[in-house]
């Protein structure tokens, strides 16, 4: 199970590093390249709740085995594909397998281990998942530079084959109270998220005011409205809408959204900036990302210690959100072409500390502010919002970068008549991490000035996106801090008793210590 939970996050962080290699090999446009990342994130997020329901209904080992087969097969197809459309589809299928693996795997661990042993197991899960996030970009860079990008997905398939060998030794279990899967809710939710992402990704290509993009965004809104109606009327909805009235619960669920705007958007996108603006190799760019991912392995222990020493969970979350907000703002200040490790270390490490301080703690706190019969739904909603926000925000940030770089290039590209490509083509190339091809079309004497022009515009676009992210993080952080305030004595929140997350933090810290 730990091997599985190591593989899944590497696919999130590593695919972005491999994009420049995939683009040069397949000659794909930027929007098709982006779907290598978006397709996996979309299906991973969208099928979480449905796969959890199926695991309870059909059997957790059965769903886990199905997910492992699907993920392995999709990874093999990704490793041998030569067409970008086949690669995009295979990554979407891999996301479905990942959703089945994550939801059923967590349930298997929870039902297999009890007491202190379960605490140690889930401490190990947190550390291994953090390790996957930390190593994914570096491993993808090394493999892409040495063996080619296909080897990255080939390694996924090979490691998952070991998981398949172990499945027959697992016990089967299912919920005695599981109800039928809410297919109407699942279909409308997945459809809404898909249309929203497609509209965001294609906005820069089709035009934001084009009928196609407007139709997609309107369709996403309509399907979400239908989803709300369906969930209100369904006897066993996949999401209990009453949880939306629980202020502390919603505040805790918004913390991963701040993480997305500050931390997660950098994982697939910042390596491309380093490749273009610094001339780094994919391996070097992936290794640089360790600055923000390695702290995740340590700071969850610090969070547990702070709570044991008298900090309230609200104070720990406030410190975490402050680190994330200040980290992304700091990066906006120092980012420039040719930036070295010295300037990057401060903001990237601060971002890693910010994530690590709430990593694991927020999951335990969420389950403590809802009633016991709502814990499954609460955990599913948290993970859906976490992964769904990642999918949508990464797509939105990528689209914003394309729009902003196009605006910059449009005002100065005519100074380089030797370049025969258009503004949109250049913006797409740069945002996919490829400056080598545009430079190769120019005379040697023109290349330095052209490089400066491109990297300066690319940097301005990045700074604008980072400042916007910092502003959003600041606003959300203030709202979260206010919503986490203790209710007045004698009041309740949405029928769910307010609870102190300190016990969850104590268990998290003690479990990680015992594991170490």
From TrEMBL:
<feature type="transmembrane region" description="Helical">
    <location>
        <begin position="150"/>
        <end position="171"/>
    </location>
</feature>
<dbReference type="Pfam" id="PF07690">
    <property type="entry name" value="MFS_1"/>
</dbReference>
<feature type="transmembrane region" description="Helical">
    <location>
        <begin position="122"/>
        <end position="144"/>
    </location>
</feature>
<protein>
    <submittedName>
        <fullName>MFS transporter</fullName>
    </submittedName>
</protein>
<feature type="transmembrane region" description="Helical">
    <location>
        <begin position="391"/>
        <end position="409"/>
    </location>
</feature>
<feature type="transmembrane region" description="Helical">
    <location>
        <begin position="92"/>
        <end position="110"/>
    </location>
</feature>
<feature type="transmembrane region" description="Helical">
    <location>
        <begin position="251"/>
        <end position="270"/>
    </location>
</feature>
<dbReference type="InterPro" id="IPR036259">
    <property type="entry name" value="MFS_trans_sf"/>
</dbReference>
<feature type="transmembrane region" description="Helical">
    <location>
        <begin position="315"/>
        <end position="336"/>
    </location>
</feature>
<dbReference type="InterPro" id="IPR011701">
    <property type="entry name" value="MFS"/>
</dbReference>
<keyword id="KW-1133">Transmembrane helix</keyword>
<keyword id="KW-0812">Transmembrane</keyword>
<keyword id="KW-0472">Membrane</keyword>
<feature type="transmembrane region" description="Helical">
    <location>
        <begin position="63"/>
        <end position="86"/>
    </location>
</feature>
<feature type="transmembrane region" description="Helical">
    <location>
        <begin position="282"/>
        <end position="303"/>
    </location>
</feature>
<feature type="domain" description="Major facilitator superfamily (MFS) profile">
    <location>
        <begin position="1"/>
        <end position="488"/>
    </location>
</feature>
<feature type="transmembrane region" description="Helical">
    <location>
        <begin position="32"/>
        <end position="51"/>
    </location>
</feature>
<feature type="transmembrane region" description="Helical">
    <location>
        <begin position="464"/>
        <end position="484"/>
    </location>
</feature>
<dbReference type="InterPro" id="IPR020846">
    <property type="entry name" value="MFS_dom"/>
</dbReference>
<feature type="transmembrane region" description="Helical">
    <location>
        <begin position="183"/>
        <end position="201"/>
    </location>
</feature>
<feature type="compositionally biased region" description="Low complexity">
    <location>
        <begin position="494"/>
        <end position="504"/>
    </location>
</feature>
<feature type="transmembrane region" description="Helical">
    <location>
        <begin position="348"/>
        <end position="370"/>
    </location>
</feature>
<feature type="region of interest" description="Disordered">
    <location>
        <begin position="492"/>
        <end position="516"/>
    </location>
</feature>
<keyword id="KW-0046">Antibiotic resistance</keyword>
<feature type="transmembrane region" description="Helical">
    <location>
        <begin position="213"/>
        <end position="230"/>
    </location>
</feature>
């Amino acid at each position: 199970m730990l091997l599985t939970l190591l593989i899944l996050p590497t696919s999130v962080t590593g695919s972005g590093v491999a994009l420049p290699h995939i683009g040069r090999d397949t000659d794909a446009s930027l929007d098709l390249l982006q779907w290598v990342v978006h397709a996996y994130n979309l299906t991973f997020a969208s099928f979480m709740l449905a796969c959890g329901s199926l695991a309870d209904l059909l059997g957790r080992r059965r769903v886990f085995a199905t997910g492992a087969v699907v993920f392995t097969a999709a990874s093999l197809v990704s490793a041998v594909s030569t067409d970008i459309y086949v690669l995009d589809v295979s990554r979407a299928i891999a996301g479905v397998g990942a959703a089945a693996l994550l939801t059923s795997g967590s349930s298997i661990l929870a039902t297999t281990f009890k007491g202190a042993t379960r605490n140690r197991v889930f401490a190990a899960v947190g550390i291994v998942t953090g390790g996957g996030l930390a190593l994914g970009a570096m491993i993808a860079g090394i493999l892409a530079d040495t063996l080619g990008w296909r080897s990255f997905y080939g390694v996924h398939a090979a490691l998952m084959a070991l998981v398949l060998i172990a499945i027959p030794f697992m016990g089967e279990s299912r919920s005695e109270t599981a109800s039928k899967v809410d297919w109407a809710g699942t279909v409308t939710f997945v459809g809404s998220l898909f249309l929203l992402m497609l509209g965001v990704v294609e906005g820069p290509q089709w035009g934001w005011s084009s009928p196609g993009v407007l139709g997609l965004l309107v369709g996403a809104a309509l399907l979400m409205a239908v989803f709300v109606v369906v969930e209100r009327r369904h006897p066993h909805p996949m999401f209990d809408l009453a949880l939306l009235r629980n202020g502390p619960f919603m505040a805790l669920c918004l913390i991963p959204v701040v993480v997305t705007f500050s931390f997660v958007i950098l994982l697939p996108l910042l390596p491309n900036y380093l490749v273009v603006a610094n001339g780094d190799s994919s391996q070097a760019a992936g290794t640089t990302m360790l600055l923000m991912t390695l702290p995740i392995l340590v700071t969850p222990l610090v969070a547990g210690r702070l709570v044991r020493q008298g900090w309230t969970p609200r104070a720990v979350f406030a410190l975490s959100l402050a680190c994330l907000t200040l980290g992304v703002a700091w990066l906006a200040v120092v980012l420039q072409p040719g930036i070295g490790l010295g300037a990057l270390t401060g903001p990237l490490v601060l971002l890693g500390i910010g994530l690590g301080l709430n990593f694991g703690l927020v999951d335990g706190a969420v389950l403590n502010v809802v009633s016991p019969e709502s814990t499954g739904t609460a955990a599913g909603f948290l993970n859906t919002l976490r992964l769904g926000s990642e999918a949508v925000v990464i797509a939105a940030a990528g689209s914003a970068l394309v729009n902003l770089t196009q605006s910059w290039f449009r005002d100065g590209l005519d100074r380089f008549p030797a370049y025969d490509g258009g503004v949109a083509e250049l913006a797409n190339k740069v945002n996919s991490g490829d400056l080598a091809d545009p430079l190769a079309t120019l005379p040697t004497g023109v290349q330095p000035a052209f490089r400066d022009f491109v990297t300066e515009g690319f940097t301005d676009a990045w700074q604008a996106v980072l400042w916007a992210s910092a502003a959003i993080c600041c606003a959300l952080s203030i709202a979260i801090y206010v919503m986490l305030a203790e209710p007045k004595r004698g009041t309740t929140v949405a029928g769910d008793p307010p609870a102190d997350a300190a016990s969850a933090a104590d268990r998290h810290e003690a479990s990680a210590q015992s594991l170490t």
